Amino acid sequence: MSVKLRMAGHLIRRLHQVSTHIFTQRMREAGFDLTPVQFAALESLRHNPGTDQAGLAQAVAKDRATIGAVVDRLEQKGLIARSVSQRDKRARVLALTEQGQNTIAAVLPVVEALQRDMLPGLSDAEYAQFIALASKAAEAAETLDTGAG
């Protein structure tokens, strides 16, 4: 008989594993080579073109070193472009390329379709409740120093 852990940290970690697996599998099946963090970066740039790397790191809750590697990979794939900031010549601003815009447009329906699959076993009402509670906790966590920025 297995013991089920009912600790928030364990459950969050387990759901993260499930969501990452489903995301990766569905992206592959749809013919895309994108990780969840790469998708989050593209989606953030879609809504905030001209963001610099520091702003992107904050938007997707990753440290600057991690986001630097993500940006490098997305640039290699031809999905984003960097240019010198007009305000700060040391900074690089980021924008989706035409290929990046086309990719995010093609990927969005896939990502939207897999959301519900990340929480199997929940009724529609429970799913809505989970989203509301997780959003509330995530927003409250924004005020904490998590080291992701």
Automatic annotation (TrEMBL):
Domain HTH marR-type: 8-139
Entries under SUPFAM superfamilies matching the protein: Winged helix' DNA-binding domain
Matches recorded under SMART domains: HTH_MARR
Keyword DNA-binding: yes
Pfam families named among the record's database cross-references: MarR
GO BP: response to stress
Molecular function in Gene Ontology: DNA binding; DNA-binding transcription factor activity
Keyword Hydrolase: no
Keywords: DNA-binding, Transcription, Transcription regulation
PANTHER family: TRANSCRIPTIONAL REGULATOR, TRANSCRIPTIONAL REGULATOR, MARR FAMILY
Protein name: MarR family transcriptional regulator
Organism whose genome encodes this protein: Paracoccus halophilus
